[in-house]
Amino acid sequence: MLNFLTNPILGETTPLDLVWVIIIIIIAMTLIRVVRMQLKRTFGDRVPKSDLDFMSTVVTYLLYLATFLIILPYLHFDLSGLFVAGGIIALALAFATQNIVANLVSGLFLMFERPIKIGDNISINTLTGTVQNIQIMSTIVRTFDGIYIRIPNSKLFTSDITNLVIHPARRFEYIIGIRYKDDAGKAISIIRDMIDKQPYALKSPGPSVYVDMLDSSSVNIVVKIWAPSLYWWGLRTELLWKLKVELEKNDIQIPFPQQEVWFNNILKADMKSVKEPPPIREIPYQEIEKKENIHGPKPGETHGW
């Protein structure tokens, strides 16, 4: 029986080698199934189904390739020439597809790290918009103007990403100027009452309202308010005008820039000593009579030279 398993039947391949090949294939198929199920559990709620299918396909083919390379020695194939040819092909593909590989690897890192997710408002360099889709090779962002932008994952992963909504709360602020003759304490009390009436203005952390600067034409009051990240923009755009109207109802005005010019007493005295210039005397218009030129040539005559 032992001789039967060790006797070559196809070249140098023995029945024992074929048994090992079958065992390796069974293990590989089981491993592929487990890996696909694990990928689905891990990324099922993080990435779209199309991207998950693509990821599973790539991993499956990589495991098939590894299984094939493991089986070849049991079939007594000479791998030296195959490895040389494969190395040359792999080197050529590496140069040709380096950007694709960089995007693919960056996409995998983005899925594991998760600095952004679909629906987040983000800012990257000069671009600000909402994440529409996170794919293996690229990320789709829609700007607030409704423009579609595709960002390669390699560029996205190496850039500074500002996620505007990843934290549950966000703060914004106003600078409101009032006149010097207005009561700053009353203005602060009115502003606080208006903030308390807003349903999206958070109590903890609470708002801050205080006099920050005595400017050239106004007393500047700084207003800092915390709001949920999903609603802070609507509150910020609506509340400012409400504060302006409420302050004016209580006779607290927002001044415009102005300047007062004061003259020195010496300058006033010097101006009084300046005499007015004498009036301009008008000369009546006189028409000058035209005299006939007696000695001049008459029409039709010639000079006598």
From TrEMBL:
Domain Mechanosensitive ion channel MscS C-terminal: 173-254
UniProt xrefs under InterPro entries: LSM_dom_sf, MS_channel_1st, MS_channel_C, MscS_archaea/bacteria_type, MscS_beta-dom_sf, MscS_channel_2nd, MscS_channel_C_sf, MscS_channel_CS
Disulfide bond among keywords: no
GO CC aspect terms: plasma membrane
Superkingdom of the source species: Archaea
Positions of transmembrane segments: 18-35, 56-76, 82-112
GO molecular function: mechanosensitive monoatomic ion channel activity
Annotated keywords: Cell membrane, Membrane, Transmembrane, Transmembrane helix
Statement: the UniProt record of this protein carries the keyword Phosphoprotein: no
Family, similarity comment: Belongs to the MscS (TC 1.A.23) family.
Protein name as it appears in the record: Mechanosensitive ion channel protein MscS
Species of provenance: Methanocalculus chunghsingensis
